Each structure stands twice: as structure tokens, then as C-alpha cells.
What does this fold into?
Amino acid sequence: MWTVEKRYRRIEEVEIEEISNLMVKVKNCPWRQTFHIQPEIGLLNDPNGFSFYNGEYHLFYQWFPLGPVHGLKYWYHKKSKDLVNWENVGIAIRPNDYFDSHGAYSGSAIEHNGNLYFFYTGNTRDENWKRHPYQCIAIMDQNCKITKMEKPVISEIPYGYTDHFRDPKVWKENDTFYAVMGAQRVDETGCILLYSSPNLLEWKFEGEVQTSLENFGFMWECPDYFELQDQGVLIFSPQGLEPDGVMYQNIYQSGYVLGEKLDLKQKTLKHGDFIELDRGFDFYAPQTMLDPKGRRILVGWMGLPEIDYPTDKNEWAHCLTLPRELSIHEGKLIQKPIKELEKLRKEKVEIDTEIDDETRRFKGFYGESYELNAEFTNSTAEEFGIELRVSENEKTSIKYDSRTKQVIFDRSLSGEPVGETFGTERKCTIGSSTLTFRIFVDTSSIELFINDGEEVFTGRIFPSKDSRGIQFYAKGGAVKLKATKWNLDKCTIEKNSADKL
Ligand code: FRU
It folds into this structure.
């Protein structure tokens, strides 16, 4: 039973033996990933503080160490030279002050005066369990030593908004720092608030960002504003949207609007429709950063709140997505896996063939963690696709139905079920007659990039160890197929011992 006491236990107060026992359970889990960031124990959620500082990439995540539940949140720190191989640095922010006593919630990072500043939400609860959020600053030096400011920099919730006020994302323009904040109006609709500061310490409430999404869910979490190819992009995770056709199938959504640049004086954002970032099952609360190569890179949480996952019984939950490089094409964000991931490629197999009303397997096409690139052309088939992690009783299907022009990701037979009440299929419409699928398969996840990042589907799957087959099929006609598969190496992550957590 996850009582309040259990959810709010502090890792500092737990015997090493208990942590070692949790680590053993995690180690025995058949679904540990090999090239994704995942927690050593406990539950990971949002990516935080994603940045490049002092010659390295830094990425933090929301973390409850002592079980696979949303409890007392810490920030855990990873760093990397290449965004592929990661080092465990340790706990970055501990929720041990009056202003973050019930969780060091999500936030972002920016370099200033030679240090890395974190702007995050301190979550607190009073004796009646009423929430009060504070917006807080912590500062990291070149040795990765982090010091919190003694007091929060924003203690008041602006008039007209509720205590759902969190997740600052900061950026700098000319000499001024700005931050967007996720918020809820008193009428229980979601929105974004804008703040400004000359020095990251004194913040002024500028007002609500006026969008054309007046009544769009009850709370907007994890906003992120940036400019790309001369356009303004606002990413956020609205809660409370109803399913609409193939859209909004998950418990909560994550998406973006594109448009003119944010008018910082008028606080207006003129934009197009809200578009979901990912069409899959497990994707939420992404965060972006601008890297020294000028790339806008996004990482998301490969998970969703309020759903049980099969890894829970092994005392851990969730991972982060692979980093994706963003660009804009024809009014849409295009997401491509970053180039550096090619470093993981090992043994390669290729085929160039035709599949004609049949299901086929090919030599070398099997495995548990690999990258698979498939190009389908000249289709006369009613349906064609790829089945992954196949055994006698299990398979995960990625298929194209040419009658409806839909790509379908079907995990109904993938193994241990997850989030079944939200359905076992995700779909999206693709107009083009040539289709490319670039698929990253890890022990318990699939990331599918369609047509070079036009659409992305991310989903966890929990197959048994011996479900390793890959097969290609076409029904009611033929399709030409070129496919390449690389086994992927494990990324290196220096392992922690219980006393280093
Ligand atoms: C999104 C979120 C954020 C919050 C954090 C707490 O998943 O709910 O709004 O800051 O998680 O862990």
C-alpha cells in the first residue's frame, strides 16, 4: 500500500541495505533498456534542465527513488559528451527546504555568469494537503556542485490563477530573461503565464500569453517556447482533452502550436492548430534545448502519469525518449533521431525484395535491440507492414492500411499489457505512397519515425525474452521493400552503487 508516508520517504533516511535490495529487484527485471536513460531504481518522469554547459550536455529527470510511484520528487543528474553515452552524476536537487518540501518539480536550465542556473517549481503541501507552489533557483558550478537560493524567487500565485502553477522554462532575449510557466485559471482552464527578469533572481509577472486556445483542457504542464526557422514554437502538455478521432487517445497529451514569434510586449502568440508531437502511447512532458551546433533537440518522458506499468513489480518505471532534432516543414515540426545515434550501430543486414501477399522472414532479421530502416514503394497491397518482437504468441505490428491511408501501431499482442483502458492501437493518416519507417527497438520500447520524422510513434512494449522475430508482410497485393537492420550496442552509463545514489 502506497500510503502518504511511504510516498514521501526521503532516500537520505533509508538504510543502504534497503536501496541495495531495490537495486537487485531492478537488475532482475527482464525489461531493462539498453540505450535509453532509465532510473537505477524508482520512478522517472519529466526531463528537466536539458542544457549544454562547460563542454557537456546535462540532462536531469524527475525522480522518486523509493518505488515505482509518483512520490517525493528529486532531480537526478546525467551528463554526456555525445547525447548517446551518459554518466551518472547523482542527485542534483533534493526536496529538503520549506519551499520544495513535497517535491522539487520540473524546471529548466540556463547559463549565466559562468554557472548553470536551474529555475524549477518547489511543490509544498500544508497540513490539509493544500498545495502551494514556489518558483525556485538553484545554481550549479563547473564542478557540478549545486546550491539552492535560500528563498524562492516567486512565492505568490498571480491573481486569477490556481495553485496549479509550475514548470518554468527559461530563455534569454537581448539582456532580459523570460520564462513561460504552466498554469490554470480559476475557471479551471489551462494556460501559459509569462515572466521576465534582468538577473534570474527578481521576476516580474508580465501576464498571460494570449493564444487562440481559450478553453483547451484544465491545466497546461511543461510549456517550452523557442524560435525555429523564424517562427515561434510553443510546446506544452495539456491535461483534460477528450479523444477526437485518432487524436488525443492518451490520458494526457503533448503537442505544439507554430506561428508568429511571441510578442513579448503584447503577450500574444498568433498560431495555427495544436498538433500532437507523438502519435504513440507513451510520450509526455518533453523539453528542448539549443545545442552548440545550432540544433533544437527534444527529449520526452516515455511514460504517462496515472497508469501502471509491468516493470512496477521490479521497483522501477519509465525511461526517456531518444533525443530528436527538430525542424519545421510545411507547417509541421519534423523530428529526427539525432545523428550521433548512428554510433551505436553494429552488425548490419540488408534486403531488397518484393513481398507479395505473404509474410516473410529474412536471415539476420531478429533481435531485441536494433535499428530497422524500411522503405516501402510501388504498393498494390491493401495492407502491408512489419511485425516485431514476434514469437508464436506475441507480436507488435506496425502497418499501413492503404484503404484508410493510416499507419497503425498495434500492441494488442505485444506481451504484458499496459494502459489497455486507453486502447491497444494508435493511428495517424499519412498521404504519401512511398513510406519509410525508421524504428528503434529497445528491450521494452519502440520509437517509430515515419518519412524522415513527419510523424513519430513512441510506445513501451513488454514482450517475453524469446519474442525476437521480425517479419514483413503484404495482404491483397504486393509491395517493394528495402530494409536495413543494425544491431545496436548498449550505450555506456557508468553504474551506481547503492551508496552513490
Ligand atoms: C508533468 C508533471 C509536472 C510536474 C512534474 C512533477 O509530468 O506533472 O507538471 O512539475 O510532473 O513530477
